[in-house]
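[step 3/7] inverse_fold.run input=structure_tokens len=323
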């Protein structure tokens, strides 16, 4: 590999992410506070006590990352982090994390514990959402690093971007056929005349996106489809995004978020991530929907149905906001 200005990464694995996160938690107060809040939002960190990487337990495997802190009430709390890029889950992996946490509390090392998953958004399953105490997405970590005042921020940003590239390309099969079906069906069924396929993503095999040509609809808004896994057991994320565009200031971005946040009740089964810079609203569609609901013939039908719900809800809102 040739060495040029900057750093190139041929391979980024989970170990590199482990060390990067541990370094940030150890050296950046702002990142540590943010990471603790994501992992344990109900507890306020009063004093950081330290961390460990690849902490081993006899018969119970190892934790990728562990760190502890004193809470505002004086309790000692430990966070055990499972980090995954794309590797398959091991049998009883979640359970063993809880066993390790319980062991540390029973031994009186800590007063309480949290088990957290750190992973790319596409990796996270419904089992993970119910099994782990909390989930921190690579995408959110990357956004946090981009806004971080830290000597290593630019380098660590490259590390996470490389890890996300690996996640997107190494295990997800080509979803072009699904995307073509979704794109054609959606544009045929939508009654909104100003929506068009975003040409920026025309060559992507896992993602398609739609933008509005309405003169009063903000050009930064995208209605996005990302196929995490194809097949009847797969899943797709339907997302409302705020793209970075020329002339979009941070104040403008916050204004768009504020507009969207005023209508959470319109799509109550969507997940809101207003702390994010880009993907602020999303819903994961399990392709097994077609099995559970016989009104759908294919899972593309279920994806299009949710995309219609998202655009019918928000396109009028953003068009009216600037009119």
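[step 3/7] decode complete -> sequence:
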């Amino acid at each position: 590999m040739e060495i040029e200005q900057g750093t190139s990464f041929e391979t980024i694995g989970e170990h590199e992410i482990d060390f990067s996160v541990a370094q940030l938690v150890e050296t950046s107060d702002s990142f540590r506070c943010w990471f603790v809040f994501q992992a344990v939002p109900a507890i306020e960190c009063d004093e950081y006590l330290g961390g460990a990487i690849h902490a081993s337990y006899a018969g119970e495997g190892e934790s990728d990352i562990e760190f502890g802190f004193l809470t505002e009430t004086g309790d000692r709390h430990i966070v055990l982090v499972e980090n995954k890029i794309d590797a398959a889950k091991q049998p009883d992996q979640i359970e063993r994390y809880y066993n390790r946490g319980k062991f540390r509390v029973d031994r009186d090392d800590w007063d309480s514990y949290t088990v957290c998953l750190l992973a790319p958004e596409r990796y996270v399953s419904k089992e993970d959402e119910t099994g782990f105490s909390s989930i921190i997405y690579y995408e959110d970590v990357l956004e946090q690093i981009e806004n971080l005042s830290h000597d290593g921020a630019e380098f660590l940003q490259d590390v996470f971007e490389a890890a996300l590239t690996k996640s997107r390309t190494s295990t997800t099969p080509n979803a072009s056929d699904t995307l073509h079906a979704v794109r054609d069906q959606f544009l045929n069924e939508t009654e909104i005349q100003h929506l068009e396929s975003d040409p920026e993503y025309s060559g992507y095999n896992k993602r398609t996106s739609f933008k509005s040509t309405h003169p009063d609809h903000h050009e930064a808004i995208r209605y996005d489809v990302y196929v995490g896994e194809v097949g009847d057991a797969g899943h797709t994320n339907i997302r409302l995004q705020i793209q970075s565009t020329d002339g979009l200031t941070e104040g403008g971005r916050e204004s768009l978020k504020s507009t969207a946040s005023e209508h959470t009740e319109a799509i109550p089964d969507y997940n809101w991530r207003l702390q994010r810079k880009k993907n602020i609203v999303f819903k994961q569609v399990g392709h097994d929907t077609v099995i559970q609901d016989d009104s759908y013939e294919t899972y593309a039908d279920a994806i299009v149905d949710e995309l219609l719900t998202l655009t019918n809800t928000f396109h009028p809102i953003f068009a009216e906001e600037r009119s």
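[step 4/7] annotate
The chain has two domains: 14-170, 176-321.
The radius of gyration is 21 Å.
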